[in-house]
Design a protein that fits this description.
The chain is an alpha/beta fold. The chain has ten helices and 16 strands. Strands 3, 5, 6, 7, 8, 15 and 16 form a seven-stranded mixed beta sheet that branches. It has a six-stranded parallel beta sheet with strand order 11-10-9-12-13-14, sandwiched between helices. Helix 2 crosses helix 9. It is globular, with a radius of gyration of 20 Å. Bound molecules: NADP nicotinamide-adenine-dinucleotide phosphate. NADP nicotinamide-adenine-dinucleotide phosphate (NAP) binds next to helix 1, helix 2, helix 3 and helix 10.
Length: 327
């Protein structure tokens, strides 16, 4: 048996219930993992609220780290006793122990502790594919400007440090002056409080009127339109989240008017379709963390039983960096 956080219907955090679930033996291609820490992500909110539709009842959570207890037939990259971490479908990491597909589970290097592993897999692999694979047609080189919204959050602080390591000039937005200061101390070259400043005007000012090559936008509805005005001709609008609500439908002609722009809507899970691609991305993440160039900042810790409160705090924009749940 395991304690787990489940929803029976979509809605607010009050739908999240601590329940007891049966945990069996891993089948072919599966492992059983006992969590030491669990990562909290904004996608958990979309799945809880019903913005992303999944079968019910649903055990929430996409990220965790712990010890492999058993492996099913055909699993060769993990064995019982291994330290491991993952960002993976299907949801279900809000629990003490679970059986899950092994494909996206990676051995955790000894130098990385469980809390860091749980905090960084989904957010760090996202920063990886954004900065390394979600590129404008002209590519990105040292010195280029990019704009990254919600830069003081979980994905944001990782991206700020990684962008700096790549030599990029990352302009970050955040919802308070304190968050802006934090992001600056984590490598953002410039910061903008988008609650009090016109971020498009500031981006133009910072870039000498040129605009940025890429906007990485996970805020969605509230920032979409102005973000297009931050791009240089042929720039890339990379939308990857909906913290303020989904981007509304738009007419493609707007992209022509603003300089023949490109738009992509990315999800991490398109990048994690094979064991090989997952491991390659994870190795890149482990290396940048082990080198000290990217530090995983955990600012909030909750007990698993307090997961609903963790959701409330995340949705109220009261968090910075990463948040974990402890079983
Ligand atoms: N597509 C993918 O592959 C992928 C993967 C991982 C994450 N994501 C997305 O990336 C974003 C960051 O994820 P995260 O887990 O690290 O969360 P997070 O950034 O720690 O938290 C979300 C932040 O969004 C900002 N925000 C702006 N408007 C908001 C609103 N109306 N309500 C709530 N928050 C608002 C807040 O920062 P300020 O107060 O500074 O505005 C808030 O702290 C999320 O949108 C998530 O869905 C996408």
């Amino acid at each position: 048996m395991s304690k787990a956080i489940q929803i029976r219907q979509t809605g607010g955090p009050e739908q999240m219930q601590l329940v007891d679930v049966q945990v069996g033996e891993p089948g072919p291609g599966e492992i059983r993992i006992r969590h030491k820490a669990i990562g909290l992500n904004f996608i958990d909110v979309y799945q809880r609220s019903g913005l992303y539709t999944l079968p019910l009842p649903l055990q929430l959570g996409m990220e965790g780290a712990g010890i492999v207890e058993a492996v099913g037939p055909g699993v060769t990259h993990l064995k019982a006793g291994d330290r491991a971490a993952y960002a993976s479908q299907p949801p279900g990491s809000y629990c003490e122990v679970r059986v899950m597909p092994a494909k996206c589970v990676c051995r955790l290097p000894d130098a990385i502790d469980f809390e860091t592993g749980a905090a960084m897999m989904l957010k760090g692999l996202t920063a990886q594919y954004l900065l390394k694979k979600t590129l404008p047609v002209e590519g990105l080189k040292a010195g280029d400007f990019v704009l990254f919204h919600a830069v003081a959050g979980g994905v944001g602080l990782i991206a700020a440090q990684w962008a700096k390591a790549l030599g990029l000039q990352l302009i970050g937005t955040a919802g308070s002056d304190e968050k802006c200061e934090l992001a600056k101390s984590y490598g953002a070259a410039h910061v903008i409080n988008y609650r009090t400043e016109d971020f498009a005007a500031r981006v133009k000012e910072i870039t000498g009127g040129q605009g940025v090559k890429v906007v990485y936008d996970s805020v969605g509805k509230d920032t979409w339109e102005k973000s297009l005005d931050c791009l240089r001709p042929f720039g890339l609008m990379a939308t990857f989240g909906n913290a303020s609500g989904p981007v509304p439908p738009f007419a493609p002609a707007i992209l022509a008017n603003k300089g023949s722009l490109y738009v992509t809507r990315q999800t991490l899970f398109s990048h994690l379709t094979t064991r090989e691609s997952t491991q390659a991305m994870a190795d890149d993440l482990f290396a940048v963390v082990a080198s000290g160039q990217v530090k995983i900042r955990i600012d909030q810790r909750f007990k698993l039983s307090e997961a609903a409160e963790a959701h409330r705090v995340l949705e109220a924009r009261k968090t910075t960096g990463c948040t974990i749940l402890l079983p």
